[in-house]
Structures are given as C-alpha cells and as structure tokens.
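Quick one: structure for this chain?
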Amino acid sequence: MGDAEHRPADASVFVDERADGPGAASFSQSDPAAPFYRVLMKLRAPVTMRDMMMAPVRACYRGEGLAIDPAELPLGAAQLYPQVTVSTLVVPSDAGPIRCQCFTPPGEAPRPMMLYVHGGGFVVGRSEDTAYVTSRIAAENNVTVVSVNYRWAPEWPFPAGLDDCMAVLRWMRDRGAEIGGDASRLLVCGDSAGGNLAAALPIRARDERLSALAAVLLCPVTDFSFEQFPSFERLAPAGLVIDAPFMGFARAAYLTTAQRWRHPWASPALADLNGYPRTLIVSGTADPLVDDNRAFAAKLKAAGVRVEHFVGEAMPHGFYFFPGLLNAADAAFAAIAGFLAEARQGS
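Got it. Here's what it folds into:
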C-alpha cells in the first residue's frame, strides 16, 4: 500500500467513478447472438434492463431536475458544525485510489477513528450525502470519521464495495496516525446498505487479525433473505423510504446470485459471531428492516456480544438523516454518544 494524500477529488479516477466492472454491459462480437445484440442496441438505450433501471434511480436520488429552495431544507453540516474540518483523503488500493472524506473535530490527537460507510442500496450514494451524520458523530464524540466512497453495483457486484471498505480500514490501522488517529481504537459505522457493509467488516477483518473496538449500525440489512421477516412483509410493499421492489433490485444488483445471499460477508447474521465487537443497532418500528435488526441483535447476544438496540417508535428507515425534524433522531445520536463513551472506557 502506498501513502495516502490530500488532494482535490477530481485529481484522479477514483474507484467509485469506475463503471468498467464485471457487471457492466458487454458482449463479444464473436458471440453467435451478436447480430441480435447490435440491433437491440440501435432500438433502445441503455441496452440492458439493469442499466435502464439504474439511470433514473441515480438521477432521482441526486434530485436532478428538481427546483429545490434551500430555505425549505434543514441546515447543512457545514453550518451546523463549522468546527469540524472536512478534508479529502485518498487511500490507494489494488482497484485504484479510494476517495474518502475525513471529518476531524477540534482538539488534541490522537483520537479514535471511525470508518463510516454511506447507504444507497449498494447502487448509489456519496459521502457528501451523509455529511450531517458524520459531522455530528465527529463533533459529539471526539472521533475522526473517515467516510468512504466505494464502488457501486451493478457494475461492481459483491464483494467490490466491501473490498474498498476493507482497504480503507487497513489504511486506518497502518497509517491512521497521519490524520491524528489512534489505530488501537478503530470503530465501524454505516447506514442502510452501508450498515450492511459495516456489519460485515468485523467478520472479514477477523481473518486478517484486524479488530474494531465497536460497531454502530444504522438501519442495516443483515440477512438478505429479508422476506422471512414479518416487518418486511407488512411494511415493504408500500414503504415510503425503502420498499420491496427496490430492495429486490438492490439485492440482485449487489449479490447477483442467491448463493451469494448466504455468504457471511453479505449476510452477517449468518456468520460466526463469536468475538464480534460490541454493537449498537439503530432502527425504527416503521422500517421494513426492523425485524431483521431485532433478529441480528438476538444472534449477537446469543454469541456473547454486548449489544444495544435503539428503536424509534413510528420511525422510518433513515430517520436520523436530517437535523431539527424528529426528537427520535436526537435520541438516536444521544444513544450513539453514550454507547461510544462506554466502548472507549471498556465498560
């Protein structure tokens, strides 16, 4: 691994900007069906169904075409947490440079480091989307938060995104002192799809004798056979934030085969959880994934892991994303602060 460096985000081709993965559409000109594919390409664009679905999902997720009045939105992270310094961190990897945003609170170093993994169904999302969450965690807990921009499915299916997160976690262990971090106090955190990746990291890292002090999982999916859970069957068909059609597409884009659903790096709930770090799970009762989260908490407890589960009554998936809207969101951040304080003290 080479040295990380601070530089503008557009100075190189970062891994999350690469669309040349094994899931990208292609065919050989020697394919017996090549004449059919060439005609199909003239009749529709994009040519594959997955690309047809991805283009509007990504555009809508970014709010493209919307006339947004900033006055109608909550304050942004920079306004709320001006004391938190945000810088670009470039971590080298076998797949190319990985762009991360580093959220550093004021005060003396070294301090604990948290690897944060954004959500977006494995197919969309950037560290900028979760700047409020990462800034608040950094400010309220005196931790340096490294928010990773990993490769997306379907162009880059499992385990590409997890590979990128693991590369950054290794860098934090080996070179984290360069950003004022204490490599002996590593934390992992993520939301939604990022919660899944964060939940998988301690299992994968265990094989490399790399351990985390604690895990904070915000509305994660921990078992990709999510239809088994009553809350999913009840809430996902008409869900407002996530729903059954999107979850089915995200699963297929990321994992591609049913066999991969059961891989312990994909479905952490199916892994050997002995030795898993102490964990805080944050959920809402209006989230289709709440029963998945309850089951994972129970499995962690059965494995002897110290686990806390904060559940916001009537709260949907991702209810903690916007400041000043919901009392339950503030309560969730308070739960994170209390949990991290105990983890750091070893109590």
